[in-house]
TrEMBL record:
GO annotation, cellular component aspect: membrane
A molecular function GO annotation: ATP binding
Protein name as catalogued: ABC transporter ATP-binding protein
Domain of life: Bacteria
C-alpha cells in the first residue's frame, strides 16, 4: 500500500529525514516512534503532502503520490488538537469532509450518523464541540477522518493530551475501528507504550533515520543498538547488548556495590555496580525485608548474574 523509498528532507543544514524507506501492508498500522526532533512528524507531513521531500519517492498502491496536492492523495489526518470546527455541531463536523467532496448534504449527514454510531456517539449529533470532553472530541475526530473512506489514516499524536485511563481506552477503540474498516494507518508517537499497544510494527527513528523496524511484539526483546535500547527504557544496557531484568537476582556468590537505593510503592529499586557494568534491580517488599540490613550507598549485597542471559544487539533480528 504505502511505500517510502529513500525519502530525505533537510531544513537549512539540519537533516530531519535521511534516506527513509518504509512500507505499509494493507490494513497494517505502523508507529513512528522517537523523541522530539527525530523527524517523525516531518515524515508524516511528507506523506500527507503538507511538506515536500527533497529526495526519494512516496508511493501508494504502486503509484507515486509525492507530487500530488494533499486533497488528491485520498489520505486523512488526525491532529493532536483534533482540529474540530467550534462553529459546527458534531454531526456537521463529521460530515464536513464529505460535503467538501460535493457529496449531497443529506447523504453526507447520513454517513456521518453511521460513523458517530460506530465510535459510540449516537445521540451526540446536535451537541456543540465546546460541550464535549477530550475523549468525545477524539472520537468525533476519528469519525470525521473515517467518514471519507480514506485510503490511509495519518495519526499525529492524537492521544497525547488525554489522561492515562482515557488514553488507553481510546487507543483500543481506535485500533478496533481501523481493523473493522480495513484502513492502513501511520501513527506518530513519542510514547513507547502507545506504540506497543497500537502498532503491528514499530519504526524507531533516531536523528532522521530508521534505527529499527520490528514487529511490536519483538521490539523490546530485540533492540537494534544501544541508543534504541536506552530510548525504549531498557535497564542494564551496555555498548554491546543488555541484560534482561530476570538475569540478575538477589543472593548468591556474586558481590555488587550499591550505587543508589530508592524506596518505591511495593518494594525497593537498587542501582548496583558489578564488573559487567551498572544494573538496576527491582526488589519486592518481601525481598527487601529479607536483606540483613537496609542497603545504603556503598554497601555490598550478594547477587547472582546469569551470564547466558546476555542479549547482544542485533542477535536474531
Amino acid at each position: 500500500m504505502l511505500e517510502l523509498v529513500d525519502v530525505s528532507k533537510r531544513y537549512g543544514g539540519r537533516v530531519v529525514a535521511e534516506a527513509v524507506s518504509l512500507a505499509l501492508a494493507p490494513g497494517e498500522l505502523v508507529a513512528l516512534l522517537g523523541p522530539s526532533g527525530c523527524g517523525k512528524s516531518t515524515l508524516l507531513n511528507m506523506v500527507a503532502g503538507l511538506v515536500a521531500p527533497d529526495a526519494g519517492e512516496i508511493r501508494f498502491a504502486g503509484a507515486r503520490v509525492d507530487a500530488l496536492p494533499p486533497e488528491r492523495r485520498g489520505f486523512a489526518l488526525m491532529f493532536q488538537d483534533f482540529a474540530l470546527f467550534p462553529h459546527l455541531d458534531v454531526l456537521d463536523n463529521v460530515a464536513f469532509g464529505l460535503v467538501e467532496r460535493r457529496v449531497p448534504r443529506a447523504a453526507a449527514r447520513e454517513r456521518a450518523r453511521r460513523e458517530l454510531a460506530a465510535v459510540g456517539l449516537a445521540g451526540f449529533e446536535t451537541r456543540r464541540v465546546a460541550a464535549l470532553s477530550g475523549g468525545e472530541k477524539q472520537r468525533v475526530a476519528l469519525a470525521r477522518a473515517l467518514a471519507t473512506d480514506p485510503r490511509l489514516l495519518l495519526l499525529d499524536e492524537p492521544f497525547s493530551s488525554l489522561d492515562a485511563h482515557l488514553r488507553a481506552s481510546l487507543q483500543a477503540a481506535t485500533r478496533q475501528r481501523l481493523a473493522e474498516a480495513g484502513i492502513p494507518a501511520l501513527l506518530v508517537t513519542h510514547d513507547r507504550d502507545e506504540a506497543l499497544a497500537m502498532a503491528d510494527r514499530v519504526a524507531v527513528l533516531d536523528a532522521g533515520r530508521v534505527a529499527q523496524l520490528s514487529p511490536a511484539a519483538e521490539l523490546m526483546a530485540k533492540p537494534a543498538n544501544e541508543r534504541v535500547a536506552r530510548f525504549l527504557g531498557l535497564a542494564n544496557v551496555t555498548g554491546l547488548g543488555y541484560w534482561p531484568q530476570a538475569a540478575l537476582r538477589l543472593g548468591g556468590a556474586g558481590d555488587a556495590r550499591v550505587l543508589a537505593a530508592t524506596p518505591r510503592a511495593g518494594g525497593l529499586t537498587l542501582e548496583l555496580a558489578l564488573p559487567e557494568g551498572r544494573f538496576v534491580l527491582e526488589l519486592s517488599a518481601r525481598e527487601a525485608a529479607a536483606l540483613a540490613e537496609p542497603p545504603t550507598v556503598g554497601a555490598r549485597v550478594p547477587v547472582t548474574l546469569d551470564a547466558a542471559a546476555f542479549c547482544r544487539f542485533g542477535a536474531g533480528a
